[in-house]
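>> Question from a student workshop board

For tomorrow's exercise we were told to take the sequence and the ligand below, predict the bound structure, and bring the output to class. My setup keeps failing. Could a helper post the expected result so I can at least see what it should look like? The ligand is zinc ion.
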Amino acid sequence: MNQPLWQLKKEMCDVGHRIWLRGYCGGNEGNHSVRIGEDRVLCTPTGISKGFMTPDDLCVVDMEGNQVEANAKGRRRSSEILMHLAIYKARADVKSVVHSHPPHATAFALANMPLPEGIHPEAEVFLGVVPMAEYATPSKPVLGQSIIDVMTPDTNSVLMGNHGVVCFEKTLIDAYYRLEILDQYSRLLLLTRQLGAAPNVLNPSQMTELLEVKQKFGLNDPRLACAPEGCASQPEQPFFAPFDVRPSSAACECHCDGSTDSASNDGAFEQMVQAITDQIMAGV
Ligand SMILES: [Zn+2]
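>> Workshop helper replied:
Here is what the output should look like for this input. Compare the format with yours to find the bug.
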């Protein structure tokens, strides 16, 4: 780690403030860390808003999670540090981990809905495939294992089932930017849904071109290997499928005539209400 420790501590506080400002964490939620040596990690303390930390709030632990330096304020290290350490141990290239509960991305994690691929260039280049980890109890070793189980050498962000997200990178600021892009992409998807439309999916040649640009940035993406067929560009299931289904005269599962004519829809609705009323009157 080339950066002086005092500068790194200040950056930890600045990133915490940005996380709080953007509403990614409420109360004392979230934690982040930087690997500062072979057996040393600088991390946020437990029980404090990440928006208002000062450098002497930060803690130093070894790779087993033992706090190895006295904290001037008597702060104790984050209980989630075991998850950070599991990621550092699994990926020597990772030097910083940021865990947060950004609302838009966390909504996908709560719904257990993986983020679709082949939609937005920024997400494809800077996030790539974002795996979904199974729910695991916070602060337990199993939480770290749940992340390790789904990550690949190219993963930089994971949705944590029923919990939040974790992003990791070579520097703290890059890990933080992954977090921003992840929540921004999730927000765009939710806004698209509010328009009543499904997002347009990039075709295989568009996706191939994009992944080639990504490679030029020095960012590896294994999906490029299976282009142009596009293993990523055509999701197996259409995004928001239940929302997007519209009646058509050719195939309508609700057994109406599929017409969009409001008069006939009104008629079908009245028929349904009448059928329900009849059942109630008959004591069914
Ligand atoms: Zn959490």
